[in-house]
Amino acid sequence: MKFKGFRRTDGSIGIRNHILVIPTVSCVNRVALDIATKTGAVTFMHPYGCTFDAVENTTTEDTFIGHGCHPNVGAVLVLSLGCETASALRIAEAIKATGKPVEMLVVQKQGGARATRDTGIDTVERLRKQTPSEPQDEGDVSELIIALECGSSDAFSGLTANPAVGEAADVLVGAGGTVVLSEITEMVGAERVLWRRGKNDQIKQDLMKLIKEYEIELSMTTQDDSGVFISPGNIEGGLTTIEEKSLGCIYKAGTQPIVQIVKYGERPTEKGVVIMDTPGFDIASVTGKVAGGAHMVLFTTGKGTPTGSCIAPVLKISSNNETYQAMADDIDLSAGDVLEGTKSLKQVGDEIVKLVMQVANGKQGKSEYFNIQEFAIPNVSVVRKEVMHQKLAEQNDFRFQPS
Amino acid sequence: MKKTAIQIKEIDHVATATAELLPSETVLVTGIGNGTPLQVEERVPRGHKIALRDIAANEQICKYGEVIGVAVADIKGGHWVHIHNCRGAKGRRFDSNPIENGDGYDEV
Q1: Top-tier CATH class for B4-87
Q2: Is the pLDDT of residue B68 over 90?
Q3: ipTM score of the complex?
Q4: Do B88 and A243 touch (CB under 8 A)?
Q5: Start-to-end CA span in chain A (Å)
Q6: Alpha-carbon Rg of chain A, whole angstroms?
Q7: Quick check: B90 and A192 CB within 8 A?
Q8: Which run of H or of E encompasses A33?
Q9: Which end of chain B is more exposed for a tag (fewer CB within 10 A), N or C?
Q10: A248 touches chain B (CB under 8 A)
Q11: CATH topology for A18-131?
């Protein structure tokens, strides 16, 4: 299965040719928004970029770098305030290493927001001239990384949309492609199934350890001992336990062996079914997989959600026809006919594969109508700090003694 | 049109209602259930689970051929299965929850 795309200097192939403006700190979000609005460049709004938490700072930088290096991005404008902890220089240099055009503007040196916007508009136009305007290069499905996501799930997600995406995943992986399953919280309770899927003992054990860590972390931070870290909407929709949600969730990855586990935002090096360490929060999960090079996202939903990514099409597949009709502007395909008994999972799976190839060939996904989209990274430090404080308090640490 | 509930695997104790089920109605269990009729004993909202047979307290409840939780009370066939009578074992802070190559449940 072939498509026409944009071959990059580093050998990767993009299905889009975006000019990406990266605000390296939230203080300059508005300047990035202003430039993007006036030029058609893409960008994202975020609350990060200035923290003394080293882990969070590195995750932030790496996620920006992952977006800049992404094959769907033709050129990058790194937009810095000038005093933030995230290193604009490190970000720009890392993206430059891929060979794509990168420019940097520092608001404090440009004479403020308006002056930076004016220069930024010229910069984006200049960058655009350095990238091809039409897709000219042939790509193969085996070069694609397809992320799998589910959000706002209902009880039908696990019966229709997720297994239909699983059918598509089997076809894509069978053709040599890569699918990335993440949201480790939604693997809690499905360990037995995933264990059987691991390609070798190392992967099996690494995955079990990863899932266990999430389970412990979550059980320590939920408000009570409810054990149900599923959302109120999930429960209302008919999901009873995290086990039930997880078992329905992992259907998305089809039936092929799990060949690699990657860190948050890390690009897979193996082809096949890959697992990425991300939390269950859709936005942080999608952001991580896109940072890890996912060309597009297959996003199943029960109740419907409009969320996207500014550089990768996020295709919505609803579990039922009612949601598809209610949010027709946001949902690309419905698996609801499976519920009505008029289509098989295999038929919907084939429709999904067809959609993937159409979108790879330039067809606009429904989330792609807007050039500014959601972005989030996992809030690792909050959990870590809570545990740290609890531990110090238990040990009667001097820092907790009244002065 | 008859209302349906989808059963996925042979060993499953529950089926998912594709429409709201009301007491005294008969639902057809589709999927692996092949359209077997089942008497509805209490209201089951759309997308929720109906017990396919009697489930004893402390019995493991299966869906997708895997354990999704444990019955906290006796559940009669035709009744609604949800958070009031089915408890998950995962993610509990105070339960011992051993895990070895699996999820801490007994093999099914």
Answers
A1: mainly beta
A2: yes
A3: 0.90
A4: yes
A5: 70
A6: 21
A7: no
A8: helix A29-39
A9: N
A10: yes
A11: Rossmann fold (3.40.50)
The domain locations on chain B are: 4-87
Range A127-139 burial, b when 16+ CB lie within 10 A, else e? bbeebeeebeeeb
The average pLDDT across A388-394 equals: 77
How far does the CA of residue B82 sit from the closest CA of chain A (Å)? 5
A190 close contact with B: CB closer than 8 A:
yes
Whole-model pTM?
Answer: 0.90
Tell me how close the Cα of A248 comes to any Cα of chain B, in angstroms: 8
User: Looking at the complex, does the CB of residue B64 fall below 8 Å from at least one CB of chain A?
Assistant: yes
- Average confidence score pLDDT of chain A: 93
Span B68-84, average pLDDT = 96
Q: Which long-range contacts (CB under 8 A, 24 or more apart) does A124-129 make?
A: A124/A19, A124/A21, A124/A35, A124/A39, A124/A41, A124/A77, A125/A39, A127/A19, A127/A74, A127/A75, A127/A76, A127/A77, A127/A101, A127/A103, A128/A19, A128/A39, A128/A74, A128/A75
R_g (Cα) of chain B, nearest Å: 14
> Is A260 in contact with A203 (CB distance < 8 Å)?
yes
How many Cβ atoms from other residues are within 10 Å of residue A111's Cβ?
11
